[in-house]
Amino acid sequence: MSTDHKLTFDELMQLAAASAAVTRACGCAIDTCREWTRIPASFPEQQMRMLGTLVDDPYIEASYEEVHPAGTNYWSAEAPIAWRHYPYNRCSVLQCGVCGRCCLKYVEAGGYYVEPRMRALDPRLLVDAPAAA
């Protein structure tokens, strides 16, 4: 897959299932990032490879609509991974070249800061909610 490959829901689910099956310890610590987490300076970027993107069109502003049917919020570890909604619709999908775990990565750009964030790709939380109209 190329780095600009737009992943489908089925591809994302396959990657999530494979990632969840990994049991070995690894320095990437992707498995500890159940909710959105600031990427630490110690994160081993050099062992990550980009598998694709969830961005529909980089030239069109994506929706900021979130999906939280069970009262979760952006920071919840149990928040659904609604791949067509914010912030997932701004994500790249990375895989650790050592252990094989996958994560979602995007850059939060607030008023006075830029913060790269990541979240483990968890098949239990992946939902195919329709995109905002």
Protein architecture, described:
- The protein has 133 residues and is mainly beta.
- It has one domain (9-127).
- It is 9% helix and 24% strand.
- The protein contains one helix and seven strands, in the order H-E-E-E-E-E-E-E.
- The chain has one helix at residues 9-20, and strands spanning 37-38, 48-53, 81-82, 92-96, 102-109, 114-120, 126-127.
- It has a five-stranded antiparallel β-sheet. The protein has a two-stranded parallel ribbon with strand order 3-7.
- A hairpin with a 4-residue loop joins strand 5 (102-109) and strand 6.
- The longest helix is centred in the first third of the chain and has 12 residues, at 9-20.
- The protein is globular, with a radius of gyration of 14 Å.
